[in-house]
Structures are given as C-alpha cells and as structure tokens.
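quick one before i forget lol
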Amino acid sequence: MHVEGQASQDLEEPVLILENGEVYRNPTEVKMSQIVLPCHANHRGELSVGQLLKWMDTTACLSAERHAGCPCITASVDDIYFEHTIGVGQVVNIKAKVNRAFNSSMEVGILVCCEDLFSDRQWRVCHAYATFVARRTEAGKVQLKQVVPRTQAEQVEHSVAAERRRMRLIHHEIMKDLLSTLQKVDECREFQDTVPAEKTQVESVELVLPPHANHQVNTFGGQIMAWMENVATIAASRLCNAHPTLRTIDMFHFRGPSQVGDRLVLRAIVNNSFKNSMEPRTLPRIKPEPVNGKRRFQEAIARKKIRLDRKYIISCKQTEVPLSVPWDPSNQVYLSYNNVSALKMLAARNNWVLNSEKHKVSLYTLEENQVLCFRVETQVDVPAEQVFLLMSDLSRRQEWDRNYTRCEMINQADEDDKIYRVVTPSVSKEGKDQDFILLASRRRPCNTGDPFVIALRSVTLPTHPPTDDYNRGEVLCAGFSIWEVSGATTKISYYNQASPEVLPYISTDIAGLSSSFCSTFRSCSQFLEENKDSLGALASTAL
C-alpha cells in the first residue's frame, strides 16, 4: 500500500491506496453534510450551536453503531472549542469515526468543517471526542471488537485515546483535589456592582416528543445538549444584557437515558464571571446565591483552571508547547497526559529512516520541519513486565547509561508520575555539566498488543531553579516503548525529539562517526539480564 497527496488546508488525511488498488476508508467512518438554512440559524444569521450539537451527536452515534453492530447511547462529549461560526447558506461537513473501542464503550472522534460554496474554501470549525456505550442485548453485555488502525493518524488517535479515557475517569478526583486548594468564596466577594446570581437563573421544561427521539425511542443526546445550550445562553444573556456566543464546552456527561413522554427540567444559572469572558463589554461580577451558590462559584474557578490547563497543555500542538512547563499538583494530570501522548504520537510516525545498525542495535532518524528525532531499538531476552519495572526506575539508569552521571528523585506525584533531577556530563572538556528536571510518566498496556510506556519531558520546579554550577538542559519529548515479542523476549524502542542540549550526545552517531548508541544499549541489555531476578526488592521503589 502507499500514500498519495494531501488535500488542501490539511482538512483531510492523506489518501491510502491498498494493495488491491482500492482507496482505504475507515470502516467506522460516517460523514454528514448539511446546508445551513434560516430555520437552523440564530438571530445573527449564524448556525445555532444547539443545532450543530444535534448533527454532531447523530453522526457520531451512527459511527459508533456501525462498529458495535448494535444500538449505542451517548455517555459523554468533551473538549469542544468552536473556532469559527457558520453562516446561512454555508455547508457543514461532519466526519466521525471510532478511534478506539474498550470493553463496552468506545471513543468517537468528530471533526466539523465549514464549506463556502461560492469561494470553494473550507475551514475547520471544531473537533470533539464523544464516548458511546453499546446497549445490552438479549444475549447480555456487549463485548466490542477492537479497532485496527491502518493509517498513521489512526494509530496516533488509537494510542492517545487510552490516555484521554484515563483522564475522563479521574476528572471527578481532579475537581475534588483542586477545590481543596482554593480559597473560600467569602473572602473574595467585596466588589461593588455585583449581580445576584439569582437574576440569571433559568428553568425550562421540555416534553420529549417522537421527533426528539432516536430509533431506540430514547432522547437524542444531541437534542438534550441543544436544550442545555439554550438555557445556558439565556442565563448568560441575562448577566451581560447582550447576546453572547458559546466558545467552549468542557464536557457533557449523561447520567442515564430519557424516553418519549418524559418531561425534562433544565436549569441554568451563571456560577461565576471572569474579566475577559466577553469583548468589548466588561462583565459584571456575580454575587453567589445563598444556598448552593458558593459551592458552584468555587467549582467554576476550578473548571476555569482545568480548562486553561487542558487548552494550554493538551489541545495545542506539541511544537507550540514551551519546553519546560511549570509543574504543580493542579496541572499534574495534564502534564502527565501531554508527556505520554507526545511520546505515543512520536512513536506512531511511519517515516523513520534506518541510519545505522550494529550488534542488533538499530538507530533510526526522522527529520521534519527542521526538527530532528531519533529512535534506538533493540531486543532483549527479558520479559516485558520486568523490563518495564527496571527501566521505569530512572534512578538506576546511571548503572547502564554513561550519559547519566547522577539521577535523584525530587518529587513523587503519584504511583505513575515522578520528577527527577538528572545530571549529565559536559559535551566539551571545559564546559559545565548539564542538569535536567524531568517528569517521568509510566503507563501499563491498556489492551493486549499495547506497549508499556515510559515518557520523559522537562518541567520546572520552584524548588529547583537553574544554578550557576550547571547548564540547565531541556527535553521536549523522550522515552521508551516496551513491546512484548514473546513471553521471554522484549523489544525496546527509545525515542527522543532532540533539543539543542540533547543533540550533541547523539550527533556523532547520526553522522556515522561513532557508535556509542550501540554500546549504551548493549549495557542496557546486560543491566536487564543481570537484574531481572531482583524485582522483589525493586517493586516497592519502582516508579
């Protein structure tokens, strides 16, 4: 199979031609195209967000059911950032496909683009992820078949979907931990001209009719999202005395289904207002209502913090993220996510070039957009689980890697995330040694066939600022993918997106002037062989 040209503006993936000459199309992919009519628009002549959400949910549900082969229900929709509005007369193109299936749930990626028929232009409007659950059948609970990714983009989404699922499952704990660190609301409401939150309160009752239901007689998730968007917009309008535009949706979470004939009560209230939420109008401050207003006020602050972390650390491209992001407990989950997903995306690239090979140790390079990445790969006769435990204890790396002269753990965020200070020798005779502050994040396989992952990236800690004695180095993306080849054989792949501080350690190998990478990984193999039986003592200290 081979890949041919990419469509304009990067709205479409490269075309994959199969061996039989046919064009590959993801079997779960569903497309919907709708022309925006006046009945779909708001007072500004723009497609209402509620209508768009209904179309998105319908498309995603069809994709999920195509994969599951049975009825599916919407469990959640998250991370929607509306980049542009869509006007009357323009065409909405929606594409949905299943990124990954778990036991009975699956993640569906949704891409929305706008097309102008007169100028022949297309642009991206938003991207979202929806989770669908396969409904039980008469035979019992459905066990979904696994998604087999074929293209590089599918491999990336499939790999990172496991990390996104992990974040959804711990979202409640993130909120709980963040709320415990916030100051009390009583101390921060001394502003004048505040607006009572009760003024913005909205309540609306909707009767679920047959047009609101799907083929399972359950209310469309998209319809419920549209009703929620409606009451939220009214509440926001009452605060600002204007017509606000919805820009971001953090997450819709559905607790259970509703059916035709049900009465749904929708309530909305402005929990908090922030200085720059609307331009050019300055929003008035909110005075929390006396009953549950203080709790909701605090939760709004916590959600804003989470939203900024997700947008800053997760949603932007890897090349747009600063090398060292400040670490603190409130953004720990998102830095860990970025750390692991960046490595998974690098590992999923398929255009690596074999640079050299010696003693069954291979060195690959990848050069794109003026960024050089390298990969070192070998196999060892040690079970993957033991390799993972030994190599995830970064403090022992100096036993086999001569580029690690000292490594100490300085912060243990949790069982799977630790921060280390690493000292490496100077690349010149008269230069200073370098030190790095590295976040090490490890992950076990989510499914059979997945690798163990140990991801590394630079972070900053106020307790360990740069000093005059060392040159502070940076690591953007590095780490290990550990694959089980057989019960006793493991493939180890080391990846590094070379920064200026890292490149001197590998440049002579890449240029063919030395083969130090080979000796380093032979030392690694020897270290693993010698210590594979010592894991009893290691288990309590491993990362």
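fyi The chain is about 25% helix and 30% strand.
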